[in-house]
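Support case: iron/sulfur cluster complex. Customer-provided input:
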Amino acid sequence: MLPHALIIRFRQQLLQWHASCPRPMPWKGLRDPYLIWLAEVILQQTRVTQGWPWFERFRKRFPTVQHLAAATEDEVLKLWEGLGYYTRARNLWRTARYVVEQLDGQFPRNYEGLLKLKGIGPYTAAAIASFAWRLPHAVVDGNVLRVLARFLADDTPIDSGPGKRHFTQLAQTLLDPQYPDSFNQAIMDLGATVCTPHNPQCHKCPLHSDCRATRQGIAPLLPVKRRKTKVRTRHLHYLIWTDGQHTLLQRRPSGDIWAALYDFPFVETSHPTTSGQQLLRQWLHAHQLAEPRSLPHPTLLWQGRQRLTHQLICGYYWWVLTHQLPPTLHNWQYVTIENLCKFALPKLTGNFYTYLLNFKDSLPTGKSNGIYNP
Ligand code: SF4
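Agent response - structure generated as follows:
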């Protein structure tokens, strides 16, 4: 149980500080649940400065939930391109359609109803409920967890189920029921700007006099995390089948990373490899395509890496120049290399595409390459 006087001081000090240190952001002060939801989804796993331009783009292109629901999934994914964690974009689009088709365009006006929508978890539901309707629900994100763990010198692991419930309860106890919107914004801003993960600026903090971690000199050690994220390394060898103008593109299936985005066909291996022809054989075999009499000699043009939450993706981009391209299969199509920019590509492939455009005059000419001619 937290002492009542401490709770009252926490609220007052936090709200006074927030009133004197405004942190301008385009979604602050909004009461429209659609725009609040949009901002919160964009800001999940994304820094404010990074997400800001995406929020502006989405708000301009889809000013209401009806506009978003009327778009195609491809349009939404294309506009989302570069922001990562594409499941967010797919859920955004699906939920917009659901709200328009099943709820007459109205978001539920309570926390429990919001939680039932796809892609809306406790954090987003609390944000919408408190910012749009001033309902007393505490938001608990990484910033809030850090402030609370330090303020109370609480070493309960924040990434365990009981830990999450424990800190959610604490946040709910401390929440000012009269000003839940300002309180939620204030505690998140404090975590983002003052009680930062490294080098917290305790001398600037409104909670300094009561902060137990500062008193004990353990602020940088908190919060405690139990699990270390296991990262799996994957080697994806992209085969850019091309006649110099067109290339084969596939829509990525569900059940793997970057579902529904567009990408080159690829072969996955357990280790890096230097044998381009072996990769071609593997790919042809996997798709039950006959091996041509003269197999092209792929050239490794570019390689790059992208770190995802649980995976490290090593991408190898092989240029497979040939005069006769393989047939298209389900989910595949041929597009001109210029038109690749119209498709929503994973970030790694987007980086490769930038390289390709910059160096297209020095690409292999193909004189020595074989012809795909089964
Ligand atoms: S005093 Fe320091 S450690 Fe405590 S809440 Fe403020 S910034 Fe964080």
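The chain has three domains: 21-137, 141-228, 232-362.

Case will auto-close in a few days if no follow-up is received.
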